[in-house]
UniProtKB/TrEMBL annotation:
Source organism of the structure: Bisgaardia hudsonensis
Protein name: Citrate synthase
Swiss-Prot/TrEMBL keywords: Transferase, Tricarboxylic acid cycle
Keyword match Transferase: yes
InterPro entries with a match to the protein in the record: Citrate_synth-like_lrg_a-sub, Citrate_synth-like_sm_a-sub, Citrate_synthase, Citrate_synthase_AS, Citrate_synthase_bac-typ, Citrate_synthase_sf, Citrate_synthase_typ-I
Length: 430
């Protein structure tokens, strides 16, 4: 971060107070007015939802919402989705550079050494109802990991941080698949370390002890793409939640559980499940106008799920890749799903409708992902679990970044208070 020599801000209040505010410039993106000095002059800024607020300095991901650009450590998302393996992207996010062949082999071997979860954890699942929402289970089990790794909870110990990052990256697919197996009453499948990260996930999801399971390479590639497209996305709600939890010194397992909880909401990671529910509810192309009208109706809370984004006011670059993958998977599986027809028609109509054009509402990452996951045979209740699985490496990368010098500050926003002024309390008998 560099403070601009030429550019600075002067805040002049009508009561004559004046403040000179420095302006910071990053390597890309908007400049930032540094308002830290205001509080000592008894002034706050007001920015609900932090739409105009840079909460930190970060080097991991850059989003240009106006132009639909997403870079991970400088690499465009479409490049990574096409050319990289998820663990290469994980290495890139965690360490700042993609691994060379040797580093990739080492990193993959290290991750595979930690894919198993403690046997006691499998007993955890049996405390949940079989019909529990898998995200409720994931919130519980991921936080509970802290109870199993007392040897690595000192966040100020770099070795602890490193082993924890590997454990979380390695175990999330295992836990996610266990959620699914538990919900359908099938036995948990152990990880098969000879498989790729995404191949192993498909195996743990769909294999049974009774017969061999062949990973379909097209589905394996689709899973790899889906994991990459969901890996990280700057300071979104769940990543900001992880950073907030981390800022109090909470252990990383608790921080990831907080991120999972935040991701669950339908306005965020829960949108992929909500989007499929919406497409199923629409059911056929001729009912689309009715839902478009509802999405525009201010008195109707209905939103077009899978559309719109806090930052992208252009087509989400991940949605473009996801759309392509969708076609590949449906073709490979020879699936003609009415959901896809509804989705394609809905996208076409929405992109030409003045309301959506004016509000800059484009399909986002969640619009097509549900169709692919359904085609692969993954139930919609598992969609956000898969989002959480893939996003864990992004959450950890941001958590790790907070330990760089000067980055760790407890997150404690203020407020504009509109409650009662002081009054004295009358005891009940008065
Ligand atoms: C993710 O932040 C991230 O990076 C998140 C994410 C990630 O990778 O981490 O990208 C993943 O969460 C993607 C978003 C998934 N959510 C959905 O698909 C749910 C549907 N989308 C909306 O809920 C909404 O678009 C948000 C929450 C995503 C973003 O909303 P904004 O831009 O913060 O602001 P807003 O909700 O106030 O909407 C602005 C206007 C409003 O109209 P006006 O009152 O100004 O007239 O746009 C309208 C809204 O009514 N609007 C929509 C709409 N989204 C916004 N109208 C109809 N359908 C929609 N989907």
């Amino acid at each position: 971060m560099s403070t601009s020599e030429k550019l600075n801000a002067k805040l002049t209040l009508s009561d004559g107070r004046e403040f000179n505010l420095p302006i910071h410039q990053g390597s890309l993106g908007y400049d930032a007015v540094d308002v830290q000095s205001l509080v000592k002059n008894k002034l706050f800024t007001f920015d609900p939802g932090f739409m105009s607020t840079a909460s930190c300095v970060s080097k991991i991901t850059y989003i240009d919402g106006d132009n639909g650009i997403l870079l991970h450590r400088g690499y465009p998302i479409a490049d990574l989705a096409k050319k990289a393996d998820y663990l290469e992207v994980a290495h890139l996010l965690l360490f700042g550079e993609a691994p060379n062949e040797e580093e990739y082999k080492e990193f993959t071997k290290l991750v595979k050494k930690h894919t198993l979860v403690h046997e006691q954890i499998s007993r955890f699942f049996h405390g949940f109802r079989r019909d529990s929402h898998p995200m409720a289970v994931m919130c519980g089990v991921s936080g509970a990991l802290a109870a199993f790794y007392h040897d690595s909870l000192d966040i100020n110990n770099i070795e602890h941080r490193q082993i924890t990052a590997i454990r979380l990256l390695a175990k999330m697919p295992t836990l996610a698949a266990m959620c699914y197996k538990y919900s359908i009453g099938q036995p948990f499948m152990f990880p098969l370390n000879k498989l790729s990260y995404s191949g192993n996930f498909l195996h743990m999801m769909f294999a049974t002890p009774c017969e061999p399971y062949e990973v379909n390479p097209v589905l394996e590639k689709a899973m790899n793409t889906i994991f990459i497209l969901h890996a990280d996305h700057e300071q979104n709600a769940s990543t900001s939640t992880v950073r907030t939890a981390a800022s109090s010194g909470a252990n990383p397992f608790a921080c990831i559980a907080a991120g999972i909880a935040s991701l669950w909401g339908p306005a965020h990671g829960g949108a992929n499940e909500a989007c499929i529910n919406m497409l199923e509810e629409i059911g056929s192309v001729d009912r689309i106008p009715e839902y478009i009208a509802r999405a525009k109706d201010k008195n109707d809370p209905f939103r077009l799920m899978g559309f719109g984004h806090r930052v992208y006011k252009n087509y989400d670059p991940r949605a473009k890749v996801m759309r392509q993958t969708c076609h590949e998977v449906l073709q490979e599986l020879n699936i003609q799903t009415p959901l896809m027809d509804v989705a394609m028609e809905l996208e076409k109509i929405a992109l030409s409708d003045p309301y959506f054009i004016d509000h800059k509402l484009y399909p986002n990452v969640d619009f097509y992902s549900g169709i692919i996951l359904s085609a692969i045979g993954i139930p919609k209740s598992m969609f956000t679990v898969i989002f959480a699985l893939a996003r864990t490496v992004g959450w950890i990368a941001h958590w790790k970044e907070m330990f760089e010098p000067g980055n760790m500050k407890i997150v404690r926003p203020r407020q504009l208070y509109e409650g009662y002024t002081e009054r004295s309390f009358q005891p009940l008998d008065k």
